[in-house]
Amino acid sequence: MVDRLANSEANTRRISIVENCFGAAGQPLTIPGRVLIGEGVLTKLCRKKPKARQFFLFNDILVYGNIVIQKKKYNKQHIIPLENVTIDSIQDEGDLRNGWLIKTPTKSFAVYAATATEKSEWMNHINKCVSDLLSKSGKTPSNEHAAVWVPDSEATVCMRCQKAKFTPVNRRHHCRKCGFVVCGPCSEKRFLLPSQSSKPVRICDFCYDLLSSGEMTACQSSRSDSYSQSPKSSLNDVSDDDDDEDSSD
């Protein structure tokens, strides 16, 4: 079906509409063989709080942006190559339901659909697109992904020292390796994570020790475990928290 739609006028028109919605600030999306599979509004768990974002699934990329005027105007376009994507379901808890993780080497985050059916459809379509891409290219699925950041609201004290309380003066920071919310003294070190930035990025002391000793797998698994155990609220080429693309969300 994708091959049949690839060169159809209807598909070209749909992609052109998406391009126009992002305006001149967005990147061109029309290329030979690209097909718009589906679109919809998902709730993205941002650093500050959950926010609605418009998502577009193509057969080779996932695109999302901020909603300015629904179905008419979006900004802050983000394009994620599907070859680098892996997804994992998230258990329902509190008001955050029907969610899954979108994981890539450069950025990972959680999204939530309005219904269980919508979640299932999104996950099935994404997995199918990724599988088809990898099959055609002969590549293997990505086994490296950036940490999913713990939202600011889930940490009133540093998640490493468990002592420093966050205030307007004592700011929250995020470790780029594990995603924990940490205080300044617990995250003074920098480490080069090539998949995320060409410059050394902020990491916590715990991850720095593991990375320096070569125990990267242990560091990554600690974040995966913490995500499933951390409390849920109700509801990345960066060097400091204020520079993160979602820090103003």
Summary, kept brief:
This protein is an alpha+beta fold.
Protein model, in words:
With about 250 residues, this protein is an alpha+beta fold. About 25% of the residues lie in helices and about 25% in strands. The protein is built from five helices and eleven strands, in the order ααβββββββαββββαα. Strands 4-3-2-1-7-6-5 form a seven-stranded antiparallel sheet. It has a two-stranded antiparallel ribbon with strand order 8-9. A two-stranded antiparallel sheet has the order 10-11. It starts with a helix and ends in a 20-residue tail after the last helix. About 35% of the residues are buried. It is found in: Early endosome membrane; Endoplasmic reticulum. This is Pleckstrin homology domain-containing family F member 2.
- Fold-level CATH name of the largest domain: PH-domain like
CATH class of the largest domain, anyone?
Mainly Beta
**Average predicted local confidence, pLDDT:** 86
End-to-end CA span: 37 Å
**Percent of residues in beta strands?**
15-25%
Parts with pLDDT < 50 across at least 5 consecutive residues: 218-249
Put simply, the count of helices is: 5
Strands of the widest sheet, in order across it, are: 4-3-2-1-7-6-5
CATH superfamily of the largest domain: Pleckstrin-homology domain (PH domain)/Phosphotyrosine-binding domain (PTB)
Write down the overall geometry.
globular
> What is the string of helix and strand elements?
HHEEEEEEEHEEEEHH
Radius of gyration: 19 Å
Q: How many strand elements?
A: 11
Can you give the helix content as a percent range? 10-25%
Biggest sheet layout: 7 strands, antiparallel
CATH architecture classification of the largest domain = Roll
Number of discrete domains: 2
Output the structural class.
alpha+beta
